[in-house]
Amino acid sequence: LFPYTTLFRSNTDKSNNPQNNAPTKPTLINPNASKTKAMDFKLKDLDGNELSLSDLKGKKVFLNFWATWCPPCKSEMPEIENLYQETKDSDLVIVSIEIGEPLDTVKSFIASNNYNFKVLSDPEQIVAAQYNIASIPTSYFIDVDGNIISKHSGAMNIDQMKEYIKTLDK
Question: For the whole model, what pTM was predicted?
C-alpha cells in the first residue's frame, strides 16, 4: 500500500476549503449502467466495536475517507458534524474512515473537536485500498440496497453533501 503522507501532507491548496466551493451537481457513478455494489468491510470504531458496511443495509450511507493531518479533511469535518446533527435521527448513517494513523491519534483528534459521527479506524489502509482511495478526503454515497450511487473527491460543504444525499432517493 502506498503512504498517504508523502502524497498529501504537503497539500495546502486553499481551493479545497469547503467554504470556498460553489455548490456542484453530484456526478453519478455509471448512471445508465448496472449498479455498483459497495464492497463490504469490517472495521473497529474508536471504542473497539466492530462495524460492517453490511450492518447498515436498509440505511443510506455517507462513507468518508480522511486523515487527521489532511488540511482539506480537517476543513470538511465541521461540515460533516453539522450534517450529522441535522440527520442523526434519519435513515442516513455517516461513517468516516480514518486511514493510516494510530488509534490514539485519531481518538485525540475526534475528542478535541467534539465530533459525534461514527469514526472507524483503518490503520493498515486495507479498506482504503479496496475502495481505491487515491486522494483524501473522498466520499461515497451508498443507497439502502448497498449500491454506490456517487463519489466525490475533495472537501465539501454541507450543501454539497446534501446534494449528494438527494441522489440516494432516486
Answer: 0.82
